[in-house]
Amino acid sequence: MTTGNTLRRAGIPLLAALTLTALPATAATATPAAAHHPAASAASYGHGTSWHGTSWQGAWAASPQNATAPFTPNWSQQGFDNQTVRQTVRITAGGTKARIELSNRYGSTPLRITGATVARTVPGASSANSPAVEPGSVRTLTFGGGRASTTIPVGGTLLSDGVGLRTRAFETVTVTLYLAGPTGSATFHHVGDATSYRAAGDHRADASGAAFTETSTSWYYLTGVETSGGPARRDGIVTFGDSITDGVGASVDTDSRYPDELAERLAAAGRPRAVLNHGISGNQVTNDTTWAGEKALVRFRKDVLSERGVGTVILLEGINDIGGSGQSFPSDPTPEVSVNRLIEGHRALIRQAHAHGLKVVGATLTPIEGSFYFSAENEAKRDAFNTWVRTSGAYDAVVDFDRAVADPAHPDRILPAYDSGDHLHPGDAGYRAMAAALDLDEL
Predict the structure, then answer these.
(1) Fewest beta carbons within 10 Å, which of 170, 241, 284, 440?
(2) For the chain, percent helix, then strand, then coil, each to nearest 5?
(3) With 0-12 CB in 10 A as exposed, 13-18 as middle and 19+ as buried, what is 41?
(4) Beta-carbon-side half-sphere exposure of residue 398 (alpha carbons within 13 Å)
(5) For residue 188, what are the contacts with CB-CB under 8 A and spacing of at least 6?
C-alpha cells in the first residue's frame, strides 16, 4: 500500500479487552435513543460522542437494503407477523455497555418493535444451527429512555438505549427482536454470510434456540452494534464497497470476509481497531439498482458518515459499474459507465470523506477474466481505472488488491487458490490475501 496526501490522525489506544461478567438484567437508560440524521454534525455522530458525553464506538455494521430476493429466498419481501428474529454478529470492539441500531429506511409502513434483547452467544451455537444464548446473559433492550417497545417511522433509523454488558473484541453477540404485528416488507441486508433464525411467537428471552426452526443468511432491521466504556475513539475503519467487501465467496458463519481478516490482523499485531463492513453485493458507484442498493454516491453519506468513532475508509467499488451494462441478471442492465465517470464518482466520495475528516484508502479492482463480467472492453476499463487508482494521488493511500489476488502467470485472472469458483469473487484464502496486502501503518 502506498501513501498519497496522508491526513493526520490522533493515535488513541483501543479499549483494553474486557472479560464478560454477569450484570443485572435491568436496562441502563443513561443514553437516549436517537435517529440517525445524515446531516448531523461530525461531533455528534462521526466521532463517537453522544449528547450526554458517553463515548460510543461502532463495533459491527451492515448497510441496509430494500426488500428483494434476486438470488435466494429470504424473509424481506413478506416481512414478519407475531415472529421472533434472532441474529448473531461478531463485534470488533469491546466495552462495558452495548446498544443496537435498527433501520426502517426502506420500509413501507412504520415499524413496531414489540421488544428486543441482546445476549452472549453460546460459542459454536450458530455453526451448530442452534441459536442458543448463555443463560443469565440476556439483557432487555429499551428505547427512548426506558420504553420496552418502540415504533420506527418509514425511512427512520433508531438507536436503543445503552445496556450494561461487558464485551470483548471478536466476541459474538445475539440480538433478538420480537415483532408482534405485521411489519410489511423489511429493510434488510441481503448477503449476511451468517445464519439468522426465526420462531413463531415471542421468544426474545429464550436461552434455548429450540424454538428457532427457520433460517436465513440475511440480516433484518439490524444495521449496527455499538459499544462504550473506554476512552473516546475515532480510529475505527469502514470498509466500503460491493460484493467483494460484503464477502460473497466466503464460508458462511466463519467471519472470513476481508474486513474480518483485517480486524484479526490488526489485533494480532497489537494494534486493535474496530472494522465495520459497509459492502453491498452488486452495488455501483454511479447507478442505483432495484436489488443492490442506492448508488455509492448517495448511500456513502448515510452508511459511512453517520458511523461513530471512525477515522479511515477503505474504498473498493466500481466493477459492477463496468460489468453491469452488459448483464440482464438479476435485473435489467444498468447504463454504461465510462472510466472518466467512474473516476469522478470516486473523487466525489473522497471529497465527502475528507469533509468529515476521514482518511481514504483507495483500492484497485480485482481480476475478472473467466467471469461473466469479462470482455475485452470491460478489461480495458478495469486496467485504466486501476492505473488511475495507483498513480493519481487522489487518495491518502492505495492498496493494490488486484495484484494481491492475481495469478502471476495470468494477471487478469484470480489465482486459483484464491478463487471462490466464479472467477470474480475471492474465497476465504483470497480474502486473507487481501487483508494481508494492507499496510497497517497507512490505515
Answers:
(1) 440
(2) 20, 25, 55
(3) exposed
(4) 19
(5) 64, 65, 67, 74, 75, 76, 218, 219, 220, 221
Per-residue model confidence as pLDDT tens digits over 32-68? 333 333 333 222 223 344 434 569 999 999 999 999 9
Across the chain, what does the average pLDDT equal?
A: 88
pLDDT number for residue 29: 28
**Mean pLDDT in residue range 174-201:** 97
d(CA 47, CA 306): 9
Which strand (E) or helix (H) includes residue 220? Answer: strand 219-220
DSSP assignments along 134-150, one per residue: -TT--EEE-BTTTBS-E
Q: Is residue 399 predicted with pLDDT exceeding 50?
A: yes
The pTM (predicted TM-score) of the whole model is 0.88
Cell output for 233: 475513539
Rounded-to-integer distance, Cα 240 and Cα 263, Å: 15
Question: What does residue 58 show for φ and ψ, rounded to 5 degrees?
Answer: -60, 130
Residue scoring higher pLDDT (1 or 158):
158
pLDDT at 125: 58
118 contacts 100 by C-beta, under 8 angstroms: yes
**Which of 64, 92, 133, 108 shows the shortest CA–CA distance to 283?**
64
> C-alpha grid cell for residue 240?
466500503
- Closest Cα partner for 134 from 145, 123, 146? 123
